[in-house]
C-alpha cells in the first residue's frame, strides 16, 4: 500500500505538470485569489493583530476541547439537536445511513462539506440506494464528472468556463451549449431548485460549533447551504471534533479572517446560525436536526503538543493559493481529500506517515503556507517533524505509521555514509575519486535517475572543500 500510494502521487504530479490547460487554469485562479486577499489586508499590522487573535481563539478552544465538546453536546440537546459521535468514517457513514433510513429518506441534497468528502459519504449512500446530490455549484460540477474536489473552498477551480460549458451540454438534460456564465449558473439552479423541493433530507458541514449556545455556524455564498438545511424536513450536520469554539463572540474574528483569506471577501453572502429544528409556530426549517461529530484520528493528533496545531485549521485554503507546488500540480495530484500544504500534514497524520510518505516531501519548504495561514499553523515545522517520524520509531510518539516510511535502500545508504564518516582515510579516498571521476557517471545511473528526469546532471567540483581549505592555508604559510 505504501509503494502504491507513493507511485500514484508521483505519477499524478508528473501528469499534471504536462497539462498546460490545467496549469493555466490554476495559475489564473490563484493569481486572482492572491490579489483579492491582499486587497482585504492593506495594513500589515491589522492583519497580524487579527491573526494573533484568531490563533489565540483556536488555541484556547483546543486547550479546552474535551470540556467544550461535552458542553456543546449538552447545549445542542437542550436546543433539540440530536448529537451522535463517530470514532471512524465507517461509523459516521453508518450513523448517517441509520438516521436517513429511520426517516424513510431516499433523496437528499448536500451543502458543501469536506468532512463528508473525508468519509466518502456520497458513494456510501448511493451503494445503499440513496441519491446524494451536491448543491454547491462547484461540487455539483465535479459530481457530474465523477471527480473529487481539487480545492477545499473552490472544488471545481481546475476547470474553466469552456470545459464547464461542454460538460453541462453533455450531462444536463435539454441543456444547450453556452459559455455565458450567467446562463450556465441558471442551468444548474434550475436542476437544483427542483431537487431542494423533492429532497427528504439535507446534509451540511459546520464551520464553527459554539459550545455555550449549541449553535452551528455555516459560511456560504450561494444560498444552497440555507436551502439544504431549511427546506427538507431533516437536516444532518457533520463536523470534525476540532470545529468547536467556546462562545459566540469567538466566531466574529474567525469569520472575518476566514472569508478574507479564502475568497478575498470582506464577508460571505450568507452566514447561517442554526440552533435547532423548527419551533412551534415557525413556518420554515427542518423538523429534526442531527449533528454527527467525527474523530477519524483527530484525538490522536490532539494528544501531541506540537502536532495539535494542525487542528487549528479553519479550512480557508490560503495555504494552497500561495503554495508553489499546489499551484502547479493542482489538488487531484495529492490523491487525498485535503490537498495542498494543510493536506500534506493532515492526511499523513490521519492515514499514516508511512502510507503517505511522499506527500511529506511534496514541498519546497519555502514557508509561504505558514506566512499566510490566518491561524498561524507552523506547517513547514510540522512537515519536517513528520518526515522524521516517517523514518524513525520513537516509542514516545503517537504519530500513526511512525517508522514505516523507512526503506532498506535508505538504511543501507545511511550506514555507508556513517562508515565513511568514521574513517577519515577512506572518506578522503572516496571523495577524491568522486571529484575526479564523478563526471563519468551516466545520467541514467540508479543514484541519479530520479534527479536527472527533470534536471541536468550535477557536476562535482574538481576539488573537495577539504582540499581547497588545505591549499588555501598552504598559500598563506
Task: Report what the structure shows.
With 477 residues, the protein is of the alpha/beta class. Helix 2 crosses helix 12 (251-263), helix 9 crosses helix 10 (181-198) and helix 16 packs parallel to helix 19 (379-391). The strands form two sheets. The chain has a six-stranded parallel beta sheet with strand order 1-10-7-4-2-3, with helices on both faces. The protein contains 23 helices and ten strands. It is globular, with a radius of gyration of 26 Å. It folds into three domains: 1-37 and 313-406, no CATH class; 41-296, 3-Layer(aba) Sandwich (Rossmann fold); 411-476, no CATH class. Mean pLDDT is 92; it is low at 1-5. The longest helix has 21 residues, at 20-40.
List the helices and strands and how they pair.
Elements: H1 2-17, H2 20-40, H3 44-63, H4 65-79, E1 81-86, H5 89-102, E2 107-110, H6 114-119, H7 121-126, E3 131-134, H8 137-144, H9 161-171, H10 181-198, E4 201-204, E5 208-210, E6 215-220, H11 224-230, E7 234-240, E8 244-245, H12 251-263, E9 270-274, E10 288-294, H13 298-302, H14 318-321, H15 326-329, H16 340-351, H17 357-360, H18 368-372, H19 379-391, H20 408-421, H21 424-437, H22 449-452, H23 465-476
Parallel strand pairs: 1-10, 2-3, 2-4, 4-7, 5-8, 7-10
Antiparallel strand pairs: 5-6, 6-9
Amino acid at each position: 500500500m505504501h509503494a502504491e500510494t507513493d507511485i500514484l502521487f508521483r505519477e499524478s504530479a508528473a501528469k499534471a505538470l504536462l497539462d498546460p490547460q490545467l496549469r493555466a487554469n490554476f495559475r489564473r485562479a490563484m493569481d486572482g485569489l492572491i490579489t483579492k486577499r491582499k486587497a482585504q489586508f492593506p495594513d500589515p499590522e491589522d492583519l497580524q493583530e487579527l491573526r494573533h487573535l484568531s490563533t489565540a481563539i483556536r488555541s484556547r478552544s483546543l486547550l479546552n476541547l474535551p470540556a467544550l465538546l461535552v458542553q456543546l453536546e449538552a447545549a445542542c440537546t437542550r436546543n433539540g439537536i440530536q448529537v451522535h459521535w463517530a470514532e471512524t468514517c465507517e461509523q459516521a457513514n453508518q450513523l448517517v445511513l441509520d438516521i436517513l433510513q429511520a426517516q424513510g429518506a431516499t433523496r437528499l441534497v448536500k451543502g458543501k462539506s469536506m468532512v463528508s468528502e473525508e468519509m466518502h459519504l456520497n458513494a456510501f449512500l448511493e451503494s445503499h440506494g440513496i441519491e446524494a446530490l451536491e448543491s454547491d455549484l462547484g461540487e455539483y460540477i465535479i459530481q457530474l464528472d465523477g471527480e473529487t474536489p481539487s480545492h477545499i473552498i473552490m472544488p471545481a477551480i481546475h476547470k474553466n468556463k469552456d470545459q464547464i460549458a461542454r460538460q453541462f451540454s453533455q450531462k444536463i438534460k435539454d441543456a444547450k451549449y453556452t459559455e455565458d456564465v450567467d446562463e450556465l449558473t441558471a442551468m444548474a439552479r434550475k436542476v437544483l431548485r427542483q431537487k431542494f423541493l423533492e429532497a427528504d433530507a439535507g446534509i451540511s458541514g459546520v464551520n464553527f460549533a459554539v459550545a455555550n449556545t449549541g449553535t452551528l455556524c455555516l459560511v456560504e455564498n450561494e444560498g444552497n447551504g440555507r436551502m439544504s438545511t431549511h427546506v427538507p424536513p431533516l437536516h444532518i450536520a457533520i463536523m470534525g471534533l476540532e470545529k468547536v469554539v467556546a462562545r459566540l463572540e469567538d466566531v466574529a474574528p474567525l469569520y472575518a479572517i476566514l472569508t478574507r483569506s479564502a475568497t478575498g471577501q470582506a464577508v460571505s453572502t450568507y452566514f447561517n446560525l442554526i440552533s435547532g429544528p423548527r419551533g412551534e409556530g415557525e413556518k420554515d426549517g427542518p423538523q429534526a436536526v442531527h449533528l454527527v461529530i467525527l474523530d477519524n484520528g483527530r484525538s490522536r493528533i490532539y494528544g501531541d503538543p506540537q502536532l495539535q496545531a494542525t487542528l487549528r485549521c479553519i479550512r480557508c485554503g490560503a495555504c494552497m493559493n500561495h503554495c508553489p507546488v499546489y499551484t502547479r500540480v493542482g489538488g487531484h495530484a495529492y490523491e487525498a481529500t485535503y490537498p495542498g500544504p494543510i493536506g500534506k500534514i493532515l492526511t499523513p497524520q490521519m492515514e499514516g506517515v508511512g502510507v503517505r510518505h511522499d506527500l511529506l516531501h511534496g514541498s519546497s519548504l519555502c514557508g509561504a503556507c505558514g506566512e499566510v495561514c490566518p491561524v498561524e499553523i507552523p506547517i513547514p515545522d510540522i512537515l519536517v517533524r513528520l518526515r522524521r517520524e516517517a523514518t524513525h520509531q520513537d516509542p514516545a510518539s503517537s504519530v500513526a505509521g511512525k517508522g514505516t516510511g523507512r526503506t532498506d535502500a535508505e538504511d543501507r545508504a545511511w550506514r555507508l555514509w556513517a562508515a565513511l564518516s568514521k574513517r577519515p582515510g577512506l572518506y578522503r579516498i572516496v571523495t577524491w575519486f568522486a571529484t575526479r571521476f564523478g563526471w563519468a557517471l551516466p545520467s541514467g545511473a540508479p543514484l541519479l535517475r530520479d534527479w536527472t528526469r527533470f534536471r541536468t546532471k550535477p557536476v562535482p567540483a574538481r576539488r573537495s572543500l577539504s582540499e581547497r581549505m588545505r591549499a588555501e592555508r598552504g598559500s598563506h604559510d
